[in-house]
């Protein structure tokens, strides 16, 4: 393999056009050489973004032997199928979150990747922003005493819900699997612990059956608690707090610092002072370079398959809780 990973993209989804493909073009160790679309827009998008090849089917990308890896920004319900197809074509994979619609699906993807010796990473790009490493360091240093509670909110008002695939239940729609998956992921990442139970309530859209809002409460074996909110009905927020016995850490641009020019803030408050630290990065470029480096050097990426599996277990349990109106014990064994 060359020193640049050659990427193909399955679909002309807006996240690919507006964020991920331009980021791959900025990366030092990656390049996008092909894009595909079933809508006939591949050639138009390829020309606009300076991509060498345009295909009218996803299979053509997978059959292209010059392509090392694929990025999959398809609807959630198609992630499993095309990740497995890509694995059997020996393509490494970056797949949008959530990786699939169930933990069983994730295990099937994992087996396909192991059988074909390919790398895969679920695209929780927020992890690569340095603000989160700073939060973890502050916790480790005891800056807020003993951690007691984690609170996270990722919401926005979905205006085009009549035509947006996020409102299609059969495609894996709903606020929990969309923005709520970040809340769950960050809770587990920052606390470095798996929840043991969840009690969740949701506002369900009568027409589509998807959750417009979910509010969930988690408990941990250590005694820590967490409260998470996702919504398509609220003003935009993407923040979390870590509350301890002696202070609190707030991260106001936790999941989309790119909407603030790449700016991240970590605000530490104690009884005697408040301190704000700022961090900058090119989030999507860092994601592109990270997964490409992992591929080139045969190293496990920061967001592992085990992590993706565990995250899906929590999402499944949360859905079960608000569906059946009951507290659910979370099984964390793979």
UniProtKB/TrEMBL annotation:
Cited InterPro entries: Gfo/Idh/MocA-like_OxRdtase_N, Gfo/Idh/MocA_domain, GFO_IDH_MocA-like_dom, NAD(P)-bd_dom_sf
Domain of life of the source: Bacteria
Domain GFO/IDH/MocA-like oxidoreductase: start-end pairs: 132-249
A Pfam family assignment: GFO_IDH_MocA_C3
Record key words, sorted: Oxidoreductase
GO molecular function: nucleotide binding; oxidoreductase activity
Domain Gfo/Idh/MocA-like oxidoreductase N-terminal, residue spans: 6-123
Family: Belongs to the Gfo/Idh/MocA family.
Stated name of the protein: Oxidoreductase
């Amino acid at each position: 393999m060359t020193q640049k990973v050659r990427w193909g993209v399955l679909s002309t989804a807006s996240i690919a056009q507006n964020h991920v493909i331009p980021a791959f073009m900025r990366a030092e160790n990656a390049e996008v050489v092909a894009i595909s679309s079933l809508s006939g827009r591949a050639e138009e998008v390829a020309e606009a973004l300076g991509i060498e090849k345009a295909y009218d089917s996803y299979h053509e990308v997978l059959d292209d032997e010059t392509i090392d890896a694929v990025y999959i920004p398809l609807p959630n319900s198609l992630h499993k199928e095309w990740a497995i197809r890509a694995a059997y074509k020996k393509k490494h994979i970056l797949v949008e979150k959530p990786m699939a619609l169930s933990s069983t699906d994730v295990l099937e993807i994992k087996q396909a990747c192991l059988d074909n010796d390919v790398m895969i990473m679920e695209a929780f790009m927020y992890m690569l922003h340095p603000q989160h490493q700073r939060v973890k360091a502050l916790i480790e240093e005891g800056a807020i005493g003993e951690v007691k509670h984690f609170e996270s909110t990722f919401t926005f008002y979905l205006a085009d819900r009549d035509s947006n695939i996020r409102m299609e239940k059969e495609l894996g729609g709903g606020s929990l699997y969309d923005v709520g998956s970040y809340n769950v992921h960050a809770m587990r990442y920052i606390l470095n612990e798996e929840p043991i139970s969840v009690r969740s309530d949701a506002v369900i859209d009568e027409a589509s059956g998807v959750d417009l809002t979910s509010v969930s409460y988690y408990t941990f074996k250590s005694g820590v608690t967490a409260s998470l909110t996702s919504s398509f009905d609220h003003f935009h927020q993407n923040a979390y707090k870590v509350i301890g016995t002696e202070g609190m850490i707030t991260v106001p641009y936790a999941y989309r610092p790119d909407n603030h020019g790449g700016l991240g803030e970590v605000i530490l408050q104690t009884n005697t002072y408040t301190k704000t630290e700022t961090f900058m990065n090119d989030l999507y470029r860092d994601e592109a370079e990270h997964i490409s480096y992992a591929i080139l050097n045969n190293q496990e990426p920061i967001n592992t398959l085990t992590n993706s599996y565990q995250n899906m277990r929590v999402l499944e349990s949360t859905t079960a809780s608000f569906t059946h109106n009951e507290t659910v014990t979370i099984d964390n064994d793979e």
